[in-house]
Amino acid sequence: MTENQVIEAEYTEVEENKEEETPAKPLEVKIVLHEGEPIVMTFQKLTEDDYQEWANSLLDSRGKLPPALIIGTFFIPSSNIQYFEQV
Fold this sequence. Notes:
Blueprint: E1 26-33, E2 39-47, H1 51-57, E3 68-71, E4 74-77, E5 81-86
Antiparallel strand pairs: 1-2, 1-5, 3-4
């Protein structure tokens, strides 16, 4: 190759394979009662991945629910809660 020789090359941009981050869905919990219709609550500041931590936070040191749950403006006697589940 001489000093003045021109070399041609093609340049192609390669896009990075970026995984699109999907926004985390808010946590939705259904509280099934012994009496009355189930209550479905949406927690905007918690995600679906936070369900187990949320459920465990409701229990006292003996692993039992307190006499009542106060969630937002809801007062729910624990004796009326049959179970709760993630929706």
